[in-house]
Amino acid sequence: MNEYTKPLPTPTADSQPFWDACRDEKLTCQRCDDCKTARFPPHHVCPNCLSVNSHWEEMSGKGSVFSFTVFRRVYDPGFADEVPYVVALIELEEGPRMLSNVVSIDPDKVVCGMPVKVVFEKATQEITLPKFEPAES
Predict the structure, then answer these.
(1) What would you report as the CA-atom Rg of the chain, rounded to the nearest whole angstrom?
(2) Is 52 part of a structural domain of the chain?
(3) Is the pLDDT reported for residue 137 higher than 80?
(4) Report field, pTM of the whole predicted structure over 0.85
(5) Is 83 part of a structural domain of the chain?
(6) Buried b (16+ CB within 10 A) or exposed e, 110-134
(7) 52/45 Cα distance (integer angstroms)
(8) CA atoms within 13 A of residue 6's CA, in its CB half-sphere
(9) For residue 136, pLDDT beyond 90
(10) What distance lies between CA 133 and its chain's CA centroid?
């Protein structure tokens, strides 16, 4: 594996289960045991009902592009070979939204509402990143 030169997330106590699941190529979110709301990013308190009771649940990995931007400048040297690239807010079928990249498509062809599915990029032995590619119609 080549050395990964882009910035990496720093897992916290709240997010470590998410990163562990990504390493196994599973997309998970927390679900509140009381109001049943699925949430992302991970947090110890439900933003909907303030419950501290939740569990981790595997998501379908399907969703749609809610909003996006195309980066055409190099803001970090690790991305120099990838410009232009898409940073998108993905709305999962289960409800939560997460910031990620849309890959495997010309950035100028990405549109809001476009169906996507999760794919995983192994960055290091510890970190695997969830990204999204167009879903077959």
Answers:
(1) 15
(2) yes
(3) no
(4) yes
(5) yes
(6) beeebebebbbeebeeebbbbbbeb
(7) 5
(8) 15
(9) no
(10) 11
Give the count of domains, the chain.
1
- Inside any domain, residue 11: no
pLDDT in tens, 28-85: 999 999 999 999 999 999 999 999 999 999 999 999 999 999 999 999 999 999 999 9
C-alpha closest to that of 89 among 72, 59, 69, 119: 69
Report how far residue 72's alpha carbon sits from residue 82's, in angstroms, rounded to the nearest whole number: 9
Residue 20: domain span: 16-134
Residue with tokens 């709305």: 91
Answer yes or no: are the C-beta atoms of 9 and 99 closer than 8 Å: no
- Element at 98 (helix H, strand E): strand 97-102
- Chain center to CA of 21: 12
Structure tokens at 7: 């910035």
Residue 125 one-letter amino acid: Q
Asked whether residue 2 is domain-assigned, the answer is no
Side chain identity, residue 86? V
Among candidate residues 23, 41, 11, the one with its CA nearest the CA of residue 123: 23
